[in-house]
Write a structure and sequence with these properties.
The complex is a heterodimer of chains A (588) and B (88). Chain A has 17 helices and 14 strands. With 588 residues, chain A is of the alpha/beta class. In chain A, 54% of the residues lie in helices and 11% in strands. In chain A, helix 4 crosses helix 15 (478-498). Chain B has 88 residues and is mainly α. Chain B has a single domain (12-78), classed as Arc Repressor Mutant, subunit A, CATH 1.10.10. Helix content of chain B is 43%, strand content 9%. Chain B has helices spanning 14-24, 31-44, 53-65, and strands at residues 69-72, 75-78. A two-stranded antiparallel ribbon of chain B has the order 1-2. In chain B, a hairpin with a 2-residue loop joins strand 1 (69-72) and strand 2 (75-78). In chain B, helix 1 crosses helix 3 (53-65). Classes of the chains: A alpha/beta (588), B mainly alpha (88).
């Protein structure tokens, strides 16, 4: 129950509310020009301010208007399980906090003496408190929020809340609205919320799909067919590397072995060179051994005799003597040559053996080198394997993603059918709840339009959301549509309050009654007065005096329900007591 | 060949080898002994250029022609050239 809307600005007209029907009336004054509209009186502002104080977003809100931001607004209201009314205060220039006259947050206070102390809460905390205490929503409740629920009980003109009965703002997704409506109607809102989740998934999928079809971005994921091929190749590569790593033998001191192999091969080469020289010498020696004949050297003597002068000094022996000497010296030369030949032959043989040994050594070294490798080689191989495995993993993830993307269309369709069936079954089993709502709605509709009109509230499981269709059979005039909203809201508020799922107030703006036949206005107000009294609730409605007077002519007595103040469209007669320029979306 | 040239190491020319042979003939020695002592002496002195038996014989021939050695009952004997009168 709301008690009072006030502000710390002296010009502000404090509005007092009482239980039952509350009429907030705006007058036209004689000073009003034809172009003036009563819209500036502040009727919608009352609703905007109540929303602001009940935790609405501050951006673009009326209270953050430059002319109003320094004003602290406050709302006094009854709070469940509290004896005294609670006062909520919030200002446009510090919109992130609300201050409460008493701590109802239930969060353990820092001090023991919090009575009569103001408590500051962040707007988020305040919203949690509202959800918990006014709507009985505790813990996590995805898809249903106190703000959305409040928007059904306090529809806002600024959000085009009067366009459709089942939406509180013009572009509200049906699935989101239906989760909140299901909660107010006492249906399985968690089940209904499945629609919202499916829609979200579908939206995500559509985005991804778009991305995949994009020629550039599509490469990030790719198609399953392409990816399957790439995965096969990558798997083969990984397998090959893994086998190599498994077969790899680490040879200790690989570098030393390599060094040794080089030495051996150098030595072998050297030996081969030595052999060539010795072989040549051997051949010469063997030639010398077989050479037996002495050549005729008789021409030497006459030739040298010419040079006798020179030779005479040094050479004392005749050639013949030298020759005789020579022959006697080399008499045994065959033996010496044989000795040398033997020596060379032995050396060659030794080298052959050495070469054979070295060759064997070299072969062993090379084999070891070929079969194994150094530790670094193994590490490099393992790094390569790791890299390939990571690449393969990434490919598999992309494959999964691509597959999920391709599968999800079918899945979403299947899921939504499944959900539809589940919700359908749930609705059948909840006949009592739905019947209560349907009966209430048609009772209210018939009070307005008489027994003759067919009025119904259809609740059925749809493909993409829970379809809730309130309808009063008529010629689709704007007036009828507004009265459908009136009946529907009244039904929601009464049901929610009856079953402790909602607060005890319902607020309507005068726009709801625009274009409504005066008879229905009168009947609606009478019905509201009656129902709120029965249900111990509060219905607050802003009206223009002419609407009210025509309703009064139709037999409705408004006097007991009119609350002070009466607003006018004078400069000082409005809610705020002064005129200011409205900016942004919110209009005064 | 007798004296060192561009292609002939100083420790290998016939005169040098002849001098080396003379060093071995401090006593009268057989050809084989002279030959084997020359080889070991050369190895000791690190004269690594090859000297074959033929070369050794040529060195002996020169020594003989100069009257520095004689063969006396198959034994090589070094002679002072001054002591040996020229036969010319």
């Amino acid at each position: 129950m709301l008690r009072r809307l006030s502000a710390d600005d002296a010009r502000f007209k404090t509005v007092d509310f009482s239980p039952g029907l509350n009429l907030l009336v705006a007058d036209t004054t004689s000073s009003s020009a034809e172009t003036d509209s009563r819209n500036s009186a502040g009727k919608s502002s009352v609703i905007e301010l109540v929303h602001f104080l009940l935790g609405a977003k501050s951006s673009g809100s009326l209270a953050t208007n430059r002319a109003l931001r320094h004003i602290t607004f406050s709302l006094t209201m009854d709070w469940p399980w509290q004896d005294d009314p609670l006062e909520v205060r919030r200002r446009g220039d510090s919109p992130k906090v609300v201050s409460l006259s008493r701590d109802v947050s239930g969060v353990s206070a820092d001090t023991l003496f919090t009575d009569d102390q103001d408590v500051e809460l962040s707007v988020e905390q305040w919203n949690r408190v509202i959800e918990r205490d006014l709507f009985g929503l505790d813990g996590d409740h995805p898809g249903v929020s106190g703000r959305a629920l409040l928007s059904f009980l306090i529809r806002r003109v600024s959000a085009h809340g009067f366009n459709e009965p089942t939406r509180t703002f013009s572009r509200q997704p049906a699935a989101e609205a239906s989760s909140n409506l299901a909660y107010l109607l006492g249906l399985d809102w968690q089940l209904v919320n499945g629609y919202r989740e499916l829609n979200a998934r579908k939206a995500t999928r559509d985005q991804l799909r778009k991305a995949v079809n994009d020629p550039v971005w599509g490469r990030i994921v790719g198609s399953t067919a392409d990816l399957r091929g790439q995965i096969t190749l990558a798997e083969a590569q990984v397998e090959r590397l893994r086998a190599q790593v498994a077969a790899f033998q680490v040879v200790p001191e690989y570098e030393r072995l390599k060094e040794r192999a080089d030495q051996v091969s150098r030595r072998i080469k050297q030996l081969a060179q030595d052999d060539v020289i010795d072989q040549h010498n051997l051949e010469e020696l063997q030639g010398a051994v077989t050479e037996t004949t002495d050549v005729e050297v008789s021409y030497l003597e006459p030739a040298y005799r010419e040079l006798g002068v020179i030779l005479n000094d040094q050479v004392r022996r005749r050639f013949d003597d030298v020759k005789a000497f020579h022959h006697s010296v080399i008499r045994n030369r065959r033996r010496f040559l044989e000795e040398e030949i033997q020596e060379l032959t032995d050396r060659l043989a030794a080298r052959r053996q050495q070469r054979a040994d070295l060759g064997e050594d070299q072969a062993r070294l090379l084999r070891e080198l070929a079969e194994g490798g150094a530790l670094e080689a193994l590490t490099a191989l393992q790094t390569a394997l790791g890299r390939e495995e990571a690449a393969l993993g990434a490919l598999r993830h992309r494959f999964d993603a691509a597959q999920a993307l391709e599968a999800s269309t079918r899945q979403i369709t299947a899921k939504s059918l499944e959900l539809q069936q589940a919700v359908d079954l749930d609705l059948q089993e909840r006949r009592q709840q739905t019947d209560e709502a349907i009966l209430l709605f048609s009772r209210y509709a018939q009070r307005l339009y008489g027994e003759g009109r067919e009025a119904y509230l259809a609740i059925e499981a749809g493909r993409t959301s829970l379809n809730i269709t309130p309808r009063i059979d008529a010629d689709d005039s704007r007036g009828i549509n507004n009265m459908v909203i009136f009946c529907f809201d009244l039904t929601l508020a009464v049901l929610a309050h009856r079953h402790e799922r909602g607060p005890d107030f319902l607020i309507h703006d005068s726009h709801l009654y625009d274009g409504v036949d005066e008879r229905q206005v009168a009947r609606a107000l009478a019905l509201a007065a009656e129902v709120t009294e029965e249900e111990h609730m509060q219905y607050i409605v802003t009206l223009n005096t002419d609407t009210l007077s025509t309703a009064a002519q139709r037999g409705f007595n408004p006097e007991p329900h009119i609350r002070s103040p009466r607003l006018t469209d004078d400069d000082e007669g409005g809610l705020f007591g002064f005129r200011f320029k409205a900016t942004g979306k919110a209009k005064a | 060949m007798i004296t060192p040239t561009k292609g002939l190491a100083p420790d290998r020319c016939l005169l040098a080898v002849g001098a080396q042979v003379l060093l071995q003939l401090d006593e009268p020695r057989t050809v084989s002994q002279a030959w084997s002592r020359l080889k070991s002496w050369r190895a000791d002195q690190a004269h690594t250029s090859p000297v074959s038996f033929e070369w050794f014989v040529l060195a002996l021939d020169i020594l003989f022609a100069m009257g520095a050695v004689e063969l006396d009952q198959d034994v090589l004997v070094a002679r002072s050239t001054d002591a040996a009168p020229s036969e010319r």
